[in-house]
Amino acid sequence: MALFQRTRPAHLERSADTGGMSLRAKWAVAGAISGGSLAGLLAAGSSALAVYFARRVITPARQRAADQEVLAVIREGSRQQVIFAATDDTTVDGVYGFFFDGGKGHARIGRIVSYSPAERTVLREVEAVYAGDLSAARWGWWSGAVYPDPAAVGIPAEDVMVPVERGEAPAWLVRAGGTARTWAVMVHGRGASRQEALRAVGPALELGLTSLLVSYRNDGLAPSADDGRYGLGTTEWRDIEGAIEYALANGAEEIVLFGWSMGGAICLQTADLSRYRHLIRAMVLDAPVIDWVNVLAHHAQINRIPSLVGRYGQLMLGHPLGRRLTGLAAPVDLKVMDWVSRAVELRTPTLILHSVDDEYVPYKPSALLAERNPEMVTFETFNHARHTKEWNVDRERWERLVKAWLRQQLAPRLNPGAARAGSVTASSQQPGV
User: In this structure, what DSSP letter does residue 59 have?
Assistant: First the structure.
């Protein structure tokens, strides 16, 4: 969930509504004219940076940054290996997706064969090339999305359309055997796609869950929002409610929500606001955004944006007057999505899996939510997985934790009060809570 991608220098960024002049430049010029002083120019520059920060947070990227270099591809018969420039991503063992050629190429990258810290190179196995010519690739991007579609996992699926507010959103429907009364609705993260959720389909099937892997506004598949901006969960949850409605119309009686990164924030909003919230039996959240203020402050820090400027950018997102600068149709209420402060209000049993070295969404709000509401929240930490790659680093443990926890949550209810009591007992006995 990279909020800031290195595509080109910030001073070259242009917006369609600035008449050719960069937004930052316009603010600086206006400040210099009105203030006529160095202080005015500095204030204008800070304001422009705050606008830039706010807009980047809520504006979908047109193209992912190809920031991972391919140094060589080695062929030995039918086998392939690839030499990457060593980075924080490529030097972690596990199985990953690698996208290249502007996203048209997709390969599954496996174990580390050798690593040379001195040369800053790493040699890895190529497990599969689903699309494109990897030998011609020079740059691409690393991903936790290992598979391109259900067929690549070896799982039959249907392409279905889910009615949403502005039309229909494509989804993959993976049916469990028999008549499944519980459906898993799987929600990908910011800047990702439904491919991200394919990692969870296997465990869901083992539990007898039919899975609906959805798309939602502004993700490139579903209809865009009227303003073309992310709501960070405050608007997207309505599309997930549409997915729940689709599931109920097709045989579901209760729902399990899976969410990754911003998808976790969307699931939390759905469980809080949807008219079907009483049918949401449980949530499984991977590296979720629990508190947007914390995430935005973190991104301001790692991008060397002064904290005051970062807070000003947050204010613009949430203030009605900020809409003219951010392009939002309505303010984004960051406080309502602070689930650390609202911890006791969460009444849906929730499993959170989060790596302690997550570089995009810090794990501490997840830990605090579990600490403040241990009756509802079970928290499991991972190491070295970075952002939303817990499954990729340790598939066996991820699937074991998810299946064991969900079996407890989905156990037959003995009476109306047993489900809540059971979830309390199960959560309180889990390690890490």
Answer: S
